[in-house]
């Protein structure tokens, strides 16, 4: 089941210990470099899309439709992978309230995708977007095109297999004599967390999983992750018990002024990590989550634990956020 995918990402991605950050936090801090999955296809999205785009190819679709923010890593990954496969790509992106800088993923998406369409940011809601993309797919049918709709962040039952497979990969990489107490990950659309949760239950049941949400609220993700995780269990006949909301650990409180809007303290933290470890966290996803984790450690949580933080990529988006720096 986990083998039925395209193989386009550079896997396995390395696990590294961050000595300076470990000393700062007074715990043992490792990082899984999923920002190394490949430059055009960088970040966590390609793991999910390896499964989804495999289905697209196998079922004979000639077009994919997906959505995201103005600096969406998922949208960029989808458009570039679609080009590699000879498939048209239609992107539906949220128009930012501030004037967009023609850099980062905005620039790369404009170069790559077959059609880029903007909608008002106020309409950027999953239920609306799913209906809108379904309408677009019906329009494509009128012109003899067969379009496949990929949800926000490639977060669905099929995409979840990507991060189930990631946990299997992690299990085979753990340094000798090391036991991870906890995996920490950003929660932006919910699929990466859901896949990790399923993978941990199957391959590493003694490890805890903590997510830090960077958009919406904790309760939304608890409901959504439970839903798509259980859909994966049912759809693929996984030998796992049903996921209950009590199993989902998400730390709220670090969305700040809103999605894609970092605080001054977050930007200072990101700059400090660059100086301490030479690693770039983007201000929308990994930077917010890492900052949230840091603040929780300062409150006394996780002391003495051995942590594996999933770096889900996003560096391209940094170039579209230079005003904040």
Describe the fold and architecture.
- By secondary structure, the chain is of the alpha/beta class.
- Helices cover 42% and strands 16% of the residues.
- The protein has eleven helices and ten strands.
- The protein has a six-stranded mixed β-sheet with strand order 1-2-10-7-8-9, with helices on both faces.
- Strand 8 (208-213), helix 8 and strand 9 (250-251) form a beta-alpha-beta unit.
- The longest helix is centred in the C-terminal third of the chain and has 18 residues, at 218-235.
- It starts with 14 loop residues before the first strand and ends in a 7-residue tail after the last helix.
- The model has no long low-confidence stretch (mean pLDDT 93).
Spell out the blueprint of helices and strands:
Layout: E1 15-17, H1 19-25, E2 28-33, H2 45-58, E3 63-68, H3 73-85, E4 88-95, H4 104-112, E5 115-120, H5 126-142, E6 147-149, H6 160-173, E7 182-187, H7 191-203, E8 208-213, H8 218-235, E9 250-251, H9 264-277, H10 286-298, E10 306-311, H11 315-318
Parallel strand pairs: 2-10, 3-4, 3-6, 4-5, 7-8, 7-10, 8-9
Antiparallel strand pairs: 1-2
What are the low-pLDDT stretches, counting only 5+ consecutive residues below 50?
A: none
Mean pLDDT: 93
Measured by DSSP, the beta-strand proportion falls in 15-25%
- Structural class, from helix and strand content? alpha/beta
End-to-end separation in angstroms reads 44 Å
Subunit organisation of the chains: single chain
Spatial arrangement of strands, main beta sheet: 1-2-10-7-8-9
Shape: globular
Describe the largest sheet: 6 strands, mixed
Number of beta strands:
10
Helix content: 40-55%
Number of helices: 11
Q: Radius of gyration in whole Å, from Cα?
A: 19 Å
List the helices and strands in order: EHEHEHEHEHEHEHEHEHHEH
């Amino acid at each position: 089941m986990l083998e039925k995918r395209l193989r386009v990402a550079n896997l396995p991605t390395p696990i590294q210990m961050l000595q300076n950050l470990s000393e700062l936090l007074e715990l043992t801090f490792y990082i899984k470099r999923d920002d190394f999955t490949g430059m055009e296809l960088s970040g966590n999205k390609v793991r999910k899309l390896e499964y989804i785009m495999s289905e697209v190819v196998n079922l004979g679709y000639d077009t994919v439709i997906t959505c995201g923010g103005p600096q969406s890593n998922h949208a960029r990954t989808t458009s570039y992978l679609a080009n590699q496969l000879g498939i048209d790509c239609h992107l539906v992106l949220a128009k930012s309230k501030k004037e967009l800088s023609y850099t980062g993923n905005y620039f790369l998406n404009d170069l790559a995708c077959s059609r880029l369409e903007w909608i008002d940011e106020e309409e950027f809601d999953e239920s609306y977007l799913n209906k809108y993309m379904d309408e677009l797919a019906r329009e494509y049918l009128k012109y003899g095109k067969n379009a496949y709709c990929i949800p926000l962040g490639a977060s669905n039952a099929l995409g979840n297999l990507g991060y189930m497979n990631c946990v299997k990969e992690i299990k085979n990489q753990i340094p000798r004599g090391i036991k991870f107490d906890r995996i920490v990950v950003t929660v932006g659309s919910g699929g990466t967390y859901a896949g990790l949760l399923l993978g941990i239950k199957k391959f590493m049941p003694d490890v805890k999983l903590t997510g830090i949400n960077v958009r919406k609220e904790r309760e939304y993700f608890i409901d959504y992750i439970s839903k798509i995780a259980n859909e994966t269990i049912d759809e693929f006949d996984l030998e796992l018990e049903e996921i209950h909301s009590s199993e989902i650990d998400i730390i709220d409180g670090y969305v700040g002024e809103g999605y894609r809007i970092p605080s001054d303290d977050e930007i200072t933290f990101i700059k400090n990590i660059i100086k301490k470890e030479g690693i770039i966290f983007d201000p929308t996803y990994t930077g917010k989550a890492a900052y949230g984790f840091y603040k929780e450690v300062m409150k006394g949580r996780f002391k003495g634990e051995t942590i594996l933080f999933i770096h889900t990529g996003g560096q391209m988006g940094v170039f579209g956020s230079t005003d904040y720096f």
